[in-house]
Amino acid sequence: MTTPYLVLTVILIFIFLFIYMVSTVVWGKVVSANDKKAESNKEETRRDFLHVSTITIGAIGSATFMWPFIKSMNPAEDTLALGTTEVDISNIDEGQSITVTWRGKPVFIRKRSKEDIAEAKNVKLSNLPDPEQDSDRVKKEDWLILVGVCTHLGCVPSGQKVSDKKGDFNGWYCPCHGSHYDTSGRIRKGPAPDNMEVPPYKFLNDNTVLIG
Ligand code: FES
């Protein structure tokens, strides 16, 4: 359930509670008036009863009217599905990378070798233009998942194929203006100011990752 949907639902519940409380108070008055005034107040009682009935019918009518609008604010299933990409990673061997599309952007998934991991970890943060620990960029050491877009001007760096140029730090190389990224996707050399972005993702099991 999205936040606006939740907020509107809560507001609707409060409206109902408010109307219920008002109705209860008015109904209490009606009963009390009945006890005290009996026949002489029949007209007033009828008016109060009509008042309660009108409020109740109005509340039900409002809810019926609002429900389709509230429901329409909840993203449809197909829209939600577009926001995530489920990827089978069971066929990716150590040292290999694949590219998938998530929200129209390329996402790099690399199964890192032990050497890749060691290189990524054995770097002094003071040597990095955008200091970030490798452990803060991965959920499992052997899997690196990145938005495959150079943070300089948005080219797609090379390095996904085994035969591609991977730059001076064995990660990715952006040929547009010569940015070099390391085996953690961090910028090491060239004009790009930031590390490649890590998208939101989670492992559904050992063979499947959900991006988004
Ligand atoms: S866009 Fe990658 S270095 Fe300029």
Name the ligand types: FE2/S2 (inorganic) cluster
Strand percent estimate: 15-25%
Total domain modules: 2
* Strand/helix succession: HHHEEEHEEEEEE
Low-confidence parts, pLDDT < 50 over ≥5 residues?
A: none
What's the CATH class of the largest domain, please? Mainly Beta
Describe the structure.
- The protein is an alpha+beta fold.
- The protein folds into two domains: 72 residues; 132 residues, Rieske Iron-sulfur Protein, CATH 2.102.10.
- It contains four helices and nine strands.
- It has a three-stranded antiparallel beta sheet, with no helix packed on it. Strands 2-3-4 form a three-stranded antiparallel beta sheet, with no helix packed on it. A three-stranded antiparallel beta sheet has the order 5-6-7.
- Helix 1 runs antiparallel to helix 2.
- The protein is rod-shaped, with a radius of gyration of 31 Å.
- The two termini are 16 Å apart.
- It binds FE2/S2 (inorganic) cluster.
Short structural description:
With 212 residues, the chain is of the alpha+beta class. It folds into two domains: 72 residues; 132 residues, Rieske Iron-sulfur Protein, CATH 2.102.10.
